């Protein structure tokens, strides 16, 4: 750059001057002004030249210093090679290890070694029963999974769902679905309570697992679950899983050329996952079931409008709370019982509503229950068992209700009410009294 400028400038200046003189001889008056202008330009060009030289000098200095740095690094490397320092991977120390870290201690390995195999191998020593488990479960698990493992809102349900696995909407729970009890122990011990994993002791975990079994009617409350009998425990769905042998049995069929004859002309989307509303965007317990169904939806194609139904508004908390019994009745013994019953009814609220405007949730509304025909609420999809009871015209009276609430599945075999029952007779009496007050 600076070189070519050097070479060019005198030529340019000379040509400019020669040109200026020629013009001066022709137009004497304007000639002087032209010369002044050309001289000014010449000065400008000289100025540019100076700054270009300065820049070039700076660049050259930078190049020199970089060059020096490279030499420095090369020299250092050469020196390390010369003094025998290994520039590649650390050499294995003679025992064959990499010579870093230390051997993990037995306690450290044990702390990570929590997996449990189906036959019970890996279980820590311990014992627990459903009776103790109920209390721990209420404390640590019920806020999400419900007092009876029935699941609050959309948190996982852990109990019931037996004989639904073949249905369109199977209820897959620990009781109905899980083939090995070891998984329950392992999963709970390893990862629950959600957000507080690793805080349960082995005995607490045995007790909780026993309680989950109890909630599933798989044991009675005296059963003592231990590291010795857990592996041998037979789950309801133990034979429900098969070894995946599709590679051997079906793979060849998949590889055949696809049949492209007689194809449907039009494909239509008939359902979107939003109808099955799962977890609400904001999470937690405010979730609502979406009441929209596929029927009556606009049909839409890939180009057509997207149709996303709004979730049903959540029923007002107030509508769930029954009218305060004190207002309806005199302050007698019945009132007190009903008040106690209202508290017990909290166990039912996840699934049932009562009072003005009560709607069906996952269970039917329970207004005016006593004297009502079983399975009679319009628009509620009862199990076959309750449908049969309705056909027979069976009526809810206090005895029937007491028997049902004490052991739902005992009273009504095949009911889909995922509730293991009220253990205390006093609770049954109280809730019956409360339900008497629950009307439209
Ligand atoms: C804060 C809410 C919360 C608490 C408290 C909680 N869980 Fe869970 N639990 C969850 C969630 C969420 C899942 C699903 C996790 C997943 O699928 O990754 C789950 C899954 C489970 C499952 C597996 C269910 C299935 O079918 O896949 C079991 C069993 C379980 N929890 C047991 C417990 C036990 C026992 C406790 C108490 C010691 C407990 N949980 C406490 C939220 C909770
Ligand atoms: C996990 C949800 C759930 C819980 C908790 C629950 N129920 Fe139910 N309940 C249901 C379902 C579902 C049905 C319908 C049963 C069927 O069709 O087999 C039902 C049915 C009933 C019926 C029969 C209604 C009729 O129309 O014949 C009564 C009575 C009842 N429940 C009372 C209660 C009471 C009282 C509690 C609390 C102590 C309770 N339930 C707890 C889900 C629940």
What's the N-to-C terminus distance? 97 Å
Compute the gyration radius: what is it?
42 Å
**CATH topology title of the largest domain:** Cytochrome Bc1 Complex, Chain D, domain 2
**Main β sheet profile:** 2 strands, antiparallel
CATH architecture of the largest domain: Orthogonal Bundle
- CATH class bucket of the largest domain: Mainly Alpha
Order of neighbouring strands in the sheet with most strands: 1-2
β-strand amount: under 5%
What fraction, in percent, of the residue positions are helical? 40-55%
Topology:
Blueprint: H1 2-26, H2 28-82, H3 106-112, E1 127-129, H4 130-140, H5 142-145, H6 181-191, H7 202-215, E2 224-226, H8 246-249, H9 251-255, H10 317-320, H11 325-328, H12 333-344, H13 384-391, H14 398-406, H15 408-411, H16 425-437
Antiparallel strand pairs: 1-2
Helix pairs in contact: 1-2, 4-7, 6-7, 12-16, 14-16
Bound molecules: heme C (HEC) (2 copies).
The site of one heme C has 27 residues, from α13.
């Amino acid at each position: 750059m600076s070189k070519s400028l050097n070479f060019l400038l005198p030529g340019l200046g000379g040509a400019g001057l020669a040109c200026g003189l020629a013009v001066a001889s022709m137009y004497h008056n304007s000639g002087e002004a032209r010369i002044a202008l050309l001289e000014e330009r010449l000065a400008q060009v000289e100025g540019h030249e100076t700054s270009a030289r300065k820049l070039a000098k700076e660049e050259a200095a930078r190049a020199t210093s970089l060059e020096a740095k490279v030499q420095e690094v090369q020299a250092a490397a050469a020196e390390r090679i010369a003094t025998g320092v290994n520039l590649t991977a650390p050499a294995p120390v003679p025992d064959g290890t990499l010579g870093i870290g230390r051997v993990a201690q037995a306690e450290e390995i044990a702390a990570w070694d929590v997996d449990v195999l189906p036959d019970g191998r890996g279980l820590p020593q311990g014992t627990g029963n459903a009776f103790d488990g109920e209390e721990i479960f209420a404390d640590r698990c019920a806020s999400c999974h419900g007092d009876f493992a029935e699941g609050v809102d959309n948190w996982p349900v852990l109990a019931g769902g037996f004989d639904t696995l073949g249905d369109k909407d199977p209820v897959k729970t620990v009781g109905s679905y899980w083939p090995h009890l070891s998984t329950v122990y392992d999963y709970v011990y390893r990862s629950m309570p959600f957000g507080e994993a690793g805080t349960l002791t082995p005995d607490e975990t045995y007790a909780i697992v026993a309680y989950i079994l109890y909630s599933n009617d798989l044991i009675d409350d005296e059963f003592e679950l231990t590291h010795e009998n857990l592996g041998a425990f037979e789950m309801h769905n133990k034979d429900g899983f098969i070894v995946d042998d599709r590679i051997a049995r079906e793979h060849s069929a998949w590889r055949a050329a696809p049949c492209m004859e007689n194809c449907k002309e039009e494909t239509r989307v008939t359902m979107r996952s939003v109808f099955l509303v799962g977890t609400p965007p904001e999470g937690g317990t405010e979730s609502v079931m979406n009441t929209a169904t596929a029927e009556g939806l606009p049909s839409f194609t890939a180009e057509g409008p997207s149709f996303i139904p709004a979730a049903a508004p959540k029923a007002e908390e107030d509508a769930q709370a029954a009218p305060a019994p004190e207002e309806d009745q005199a302050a007698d013994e019945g009132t007190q019982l009903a008040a106690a019953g209202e508290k017990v009814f909290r166990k039912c609220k996840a699934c049932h509503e009562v009072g003005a405007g009560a709607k069906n949730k996952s269970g039917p509304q329970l207004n005016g229950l006593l004297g009502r025909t079983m399975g009679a609420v319009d628009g509620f999809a009862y199990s076959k068992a309750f449908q049969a009871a309705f056909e027979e015209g069976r009526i809810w009276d206090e005895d029937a209700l007491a028997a049902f609430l004490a052991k739902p599945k005992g009273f009504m075999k095949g009911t889909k009410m995922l509730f293991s029952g009220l253990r205390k007779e006093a609770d049954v009496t109280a809730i019956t009294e409360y339900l008497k007050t629950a009307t439209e």
